[in-house]
Amino acid sequence: MRMPFALLCTIGLLHSGFSHAEESPPAKEKGADWLIPSLSLGISYPLVVSASIGAIVPLGRPAAHPYYDIIPSIPAVRIDEEIGLGGTTTSVGLVLPRENGMLSLKKARLRTWLMPWNIEAGKIFDGTVVEFAVAGHIPAKLGLGRFSEVDPPDGAAISLTYIFLGLGW
Fold it and tell me: Is 12 helix (H, G, I), strand (E, B) or coil?
């Protein structure tokens, strides 16, 4: 039995339409799976007003997440630099994702300069920071930390509590 040419063309078009519908969506840009930028602005003690920039690197192949552009779907490594009127912090740590946010546990070095809040400029501190970021239309972040002075001149180390409240992740 011979099929007419028009019927063969119709079957070919239908087949190509169905096979097109079954294709997976286009992949994200190369690099989008392994690096998530992080940004925040806020007020903090002792840095007064500060801005933070950093990167979040997932520890494996990420799964789908509603806020994937700012929150990893799997544990990740986080590196941040925060610069403020009263000093700067450099930190590295682990990110633990939550449904609508993330928890970051970081080791940090804080250096005071210019106009620190209630502490002398030119001091260096080491400490730990815990941050919780909530995703949404306007992401928010709260950070709490504890720092101790590195190599105090008189042998009596100063300790301080770090507090950050701002917008970003």
Answer: helix
CA 89 to chain centre: 15
The pLDDT value recorded for residue 2 is 54
Asked if 100 and 82 count as a contact pair (C-beta separation under 8 A), the reply is: no
Tens digit of each residue's pLDDT (9 = 90 or more) over 2-50: 544 444 444 443 344 444 444 434 444 444 568 889 999 999 999 999 9
User: Can you name the residues that pair with 37 across neighbouring β-strands?
Assistant: 55
Look up tokens 């633990």; give the residue.
96
Q: Hey, CA dihedral for 125, 131, 136, 138, is it positive or negative?
A: negative
Closest CA to 108 of 160, 48, 43: 160
84, 89, 92, 95: CA torsion to nearest 10: -40
Task: Please give the full DSSP string across 83-128, using - where no structure is assigned.
Answer: EETTEEEEEEEEEEEETTEEEEEEEEEEEE-SS-SSS-TT-EEEEE
**Amino acid found at 69:** D
Q: How many CB atoms lie within 10 A of CB 105?
A: 13
